[in-house]
């Protein structure tokens, strides 16, 4: 009786409505004594983005070049074209007639031979190297001293010194050169007035620009005054990035200021010192306005450097081809000096 009732109840119960035993999840079934889930796994959500059409990718890759195109065109027009034109002119017979009528003929290396065989060119080149070396050494020494001083100043004095450096840097070159001319003027100059007031009567009505070494020294001071602000501000900004903990550790070990600079500041900031030095070599090597306004390369040729010499040859002799040769040789000398420095710096970094 019980068997027939159980069979009847099993036939009447729908297969999809089988009641799971108590304590078991209805979404599982038993397999080999272990419950196995019968629920389908959840569908995976696609994480890949829809690929952009080829046209959009081409437009995106072209857009950065379109943004920098004006800068590239301006650089090519202001720098590359004059350089190429100067190179072409150095291999031509280019005088006043060719400047007016055109039709410059090809000269080959005759212009370079004429300049390199001239003893005056080598004298001017040596003077330019000496002028550049003296200026760069003094500029880097003064700029490092000023940067170290600014780091140790208080807030108010630091702002005052930095403001003075910025104003000095922003002074127009012609204006600063004119001020220096007035300062060293023989009768009305403030330098002679101060020296005479201090008891140096030999400087009464002293003419500074009549002596070659004195004019050379005045130009060095002028270019230093114009160059130190940029180098000092750059080095100061770099020194603020050196971790203060390094100086604290050195101070605990008994290191003084000079030892801390040699062991911490200079090694950490060696690339920045190298960059500023290279920029100063370029800036001093091509200095023209200051020399031409104050002395025009005189007295005699005591202050004639390669930029002034190239201008004199081109404008006084109307030999624009020889002037182009001198300027190209000056560029090559600067490049050789910078390459030598970079090679030395890379060797030191590799050895370290």
CATH class of the largest domain: Mainly Alpha
- Total helical segments: 15
Kindly name the structural category: mainly alpha
Supply the CATH architecture of the largest domain. Orthogonal Bundle
N-to-C span = 100 Å
The rounded Rg comes to 39 Å
InterPro entries: MetI-like, MetI-like_sf, UgpAE/MalFG_permease
Keywords: Cell membrane, Membrane, Transmembrane, Transmembrane helix, Transport
GO biological process, one term: transmembrane transport
Membrane topology: Multi-pass membrane protein
Report on the structure:
By secondary structure, this protein is mainly alpha-helical. It has two domains: 44 residues, no CATH class; 233 residues, MetI-like fold, CATH 1.10.3720.10. The chain contains 15 helices and four strands. Strands 1-2 form a two-stranded antiparallel sheet. Helix 2 packs across helix 15, helix 5 crosses helix 9 and helix 14 runs antiparallel to helix 15. It is globular, with a radius of gyration of 39 Å. The chain starts with a helix and ends with a helix.
In a few lines, what is going on in this structure?
This protein is mainly alpha-helical.
Descriptive labels:
MetI-like fold; cell membrane; UgpAE/MalFG_permease; disordered N terminus; mainly alpha; 352 residues; MetI-like_sf; 2 domains; two-stranded antiparallel sheet; transmembrane
How are the secondary structure elements laid out?
Elements: H1 2-12, E1 28-31, E2 34-37, H2 54-90, E3 92-93, H3 96-101, E4 105-106, H4 110-116, H5 119-152, H6 155-170, H7 173-183, H8 190-197, H9 212-239, H10 244-252, H11 257-268, H12 270-285, H13 289-294, H14 306-316, H15 320-351
Antiparallel strand pairs: 1-2, 3-4
Helix pairs in contact: 2-15, 4-15, 5-9, 5-12, 6-9, 9-12, 12-15, 14-15
